[in-house]
Amino acid sequence: MFRLTDIIPRYLLGKHQLTASVVFAALFSLIFILVSIPFTQNAWFQLAGNEAFGYTVAFFVIAVIVVVISKRALYFRSANDMTYLEYMLWCFGEVCVIALLYTAFTIEGESFGIIETDNIKFVPLLAQSIIITLVCLGIPYIISGLYFALEDKNNTIRLMNYSNVVSDEQVPLHKEKRINLTDNNGAIKFSINSDNLYFLESDDNYIQVWYINTDGEMKQYMLRCKLKTIEESFTDSDLVRCHRKYVVNIDKVATLRFEGGGYFIDLDRKGLDPIPVSKSYEETVLSRFNSR
Asked: Most CB within 10 Å of its CB: which of 155, 158, 210, 249?
């Protein structure tokens, strides 16, 4: 059982997770609103092609924009630790803003004759709006959180199935170039000879390590960590970052080609897709190639 003062898990605040929660909340809210219209006092949403329909679309679009802006701000805020209490207050803030938005739309729409209500007063209307918005956002947020918790648990189980150290072919110690990768806590979780390593691929809070084993088979190792966390561990190695999602082993590059306005890296093993080089890393990659 968690406490409100505990730090919220990173898997709830990743870019992928926040984007998915917004999409799910929007779809859930739309379905819930349409189903509940006949049973909700002062519900003025319409699907017919009239002024009320345009009013409905305008409100829904603005509400989605509010949530998107909020989640984007939350993503940057979560760069620092955030407690469950702070996260819950943040989400409740979204509810209050959208409830105020609905209340304002209702009052203005009634004054212009676009919609018809029972002339309910501001405070009761706002209270009713908060309750409805809590349902529209709270339920999908809770379901999303449970899904991402289960996904993280499954990833943890997959990580437990990997050995902590990759066994490479025997290399004389004076010739061995070993790269050690750590998790978010700084503990070494993966150690491999750089001659066997092809590239690293970031997936939010996880890293996929692509390497060959002693039988020459391409394998993957999943590490709970971000590329930014381990960048210092390969500064003096053959690894170079070429994209926000990729780090490649220079020794495994077959060609560096310019195509369609950008650079792409082809590795020296068949079956591997080309790896893009983003504009922000072009200079670094080119300088590493020129210095070889």
From this structure: 249
267: closest CA among 252, 289, 282?
252
pLDDT single digits (tens) 168-186: 444 444 345 777 787 766 7
First-residue to last-residue Cα distance in the chain: 54
Cα separation, 182 vs 184, in Å, equals 7
3 state SS of 253 = strand
CB 45 within 8 A of CB 32: no
CA–CA dist 290, 286 (Å, integer): 6
Rounded CA separation 284/263 (Å) = 12
Helix and strand counts by DSSP (H, E) for the chain: 6, 10
The Cβ of residue 33 has, within 10 Å, a number of other Cβ atoms equal to 18
Output the pTM of the full model: 0.57
Nearest CA to 220 out of 196, 238, 241 is that of: 196
For tokens 């996929």, the residue is 208
Which candidate, 221, 154, 144, 139, places its Cα nearest to that of 188? 221
Q: Which residues contact 156 (CB under 8 A, 6 or more apart)?
A: 224
d(C-alpha 40, C-alpha 17), whole Å: 31
| C-alpha–C-alpha distance, residues 266 and 104, integer Å | 56
φ/ψ bin of 271: left (φ > 0), alpha (ψ from -120 to 50), beta (otherwise): left
Q: What is the DSSP letter of 273?
A: P
263-268 long-range CB contacts below 8 Å, 24 or more apart? 267/198, 267/199
Amino acid present at 148: F
pLDDT at 15 (0 to 100): 78
- Does 159 score more than 70 pLDDT? no
Give me 139's structure tokens: 């339920």
